[in-house]
Specification:
about 180 residues; alpha+beta; Double Stranded RNA Binding Domain; three-stranded antiparallel sheet; 5 helices; about 35% helix; about 30% strand
């Protein structure tokens, strides 16, 4: 079973197994694909088993773009809570996902210095057409590959809004890295 390959002890007698399988099926029906997204799958399983205390909470975020005919800048603002402390940061990026990634890691690296080494190394988007929505209204699946220079891990996010899907995958990537420490 995939869970055992990820170091999660689980078998047919595990009380939470039915809940885990139900949650995976629900997410896959929504558009998630955990094949090749072991980081997100490990988090889903651990959460279903009640074995994950979030290292942080995203309180709020905002992404905007500004510019003129020659230059454009994306800016992301994030507000995160770690315990009873709040970090509120702003970062610029060459796109909205890059700006969000920078802002999240900037906000969290004062609490978790190991995140300074984390880099997003691959970003893929797949449009999931359904009979209800096509084109710009279609659901998107975002796959992200991250590394800390030693290991690589893969996460996924799904949403009709590409920024929301990207944010889900980014948050999973950070949370998964923190889980490994």
């Amino acid at each position: 079973m995939k869970a055992q390959e990820m170091g999660i002890r689980i078998n047919n007698d595990t009380p939470e197994l039915k809940n885990i399988l139900t949650k995976v099926k629900e997410q896959e029906h929504f558009g998630y694909d955990y094949e090749g997204a072991e980081g997100s799958l490990a988090l889903l399983i651990r959460k279903a088993m009640g074995r994950v205390d979030p290292a942080f909470d995203l309180e709020a975020y905002h992404v905007s773009m500004r510019g003129d005919s020659l230059e454009h800048v994306c800016e992301a603002t994030v507000k995160v809570r770690v315990g009873n402390k709040i970090a509120h940061t702003v970062a610029d990026g060459d796109g909205p996902v890059n700006a969000l990634d920078q802002a999240l890691r900037n906000a969290l690296s004062s609490f978790y210095p190991e995140l300074k080494k984390v880099k997003l190394t691959d970003y893929k988007v797949r449009i999931l057409n359904s009979s209800r929505a096509f084109g710009t209204a279609a659901k998107t699946r975002v796959s992200i590959e991250s590394t800390d220079g030693k290991e690589r891990w893969y996460t996924v996010g799904v949403n009709e809004n590409i920024i929301e899907g990207s944010l889900q995958a980014l948050l999973d990537g950070i949370e998964f890295r923190l889980l490994k420490k």
